[in-house]
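A note from the maintainers: we've had questions about how concatenated examples are separated. There is no special marker in the raw files; a new sequence line simply starts the next protein. For clarity in this README we add a label.
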Amino acid sequence: MQAHKQFFNSGKTRSIAWRLEQLYTLKQSIKKHQEEINNALYHDLGKPECEVYSGEIYPILKEIDYFLENLSHLVKPRKKS
């Protein structure tokens, strides 16, 4: 826990480039392990592959795409009234 705290306090996670890299890596990992995710959700919950993709994988990938495209706008400071 201490190592994670030190890493966070280093400020590296504040960089937009670092965040984009993490999102891209997550997206690629989900795609790479999609078959394993399908198998796990089938064995654990009985979900068929099409349900896993449409209900679990696709929405996450679309959310990641949204943040990859909009992160620099979303992190800009905003004035509050």
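[label: protein 2]
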Amino acid sequence: MAHNYNKSSDYEKTWHPIANKFYFSKYPNSSLRRYEGNTPASLSFQKKDIDVSVIRDDKIVHISEKFRQNDYGDLLIELYSKYPKTKGWMHNSEADFLTYFSPKKVYVLKKKELIDWYIQEDFESKLKDALKVFHEENVEKSTRQGIKFQTKQGNLINVTLIQAFNQTRGSKWHTISLAVLWNDLKKEGLGVKDFELD
């Protein structure tokens, strides 16, 4: 069954009041600026993987938001928004933080720290052949496949390749992501923080 991009976008918007409440709890006396819609200003921020900015005094914090229907215990890293030509948000982000919402918990980490780790591990070239086979064997469907990955720190971690087969108004494309357990990211030294949601 094809994944519907427009439905996903509508689902994410239902999260905005919950996300706003969380930001105000961490940044009292601040204001928020969301980058929604198709205005030139909003689109320029969206292209930088910035969904919302928290403004407090003279300081602005840019945030990339991700929302999932369940807490699977992992971070879903978008490798390709349209495989194989258009790379995902790991390659174009200028956000300061990633906030990753699930029904009962939000995970927060510095975006640069995540990107630096991703580049250092060289996932793109190390998984290139596996991605090609994974995609070719599953062209018309959404699917997942677990693999083991040896990190430069010597940790053998379990990661999951996930392909979403998208179809909207006659257009078809594949989004490919990599799911990494939060506990493995912590083992790798990333400063992941998590907070319970009210």
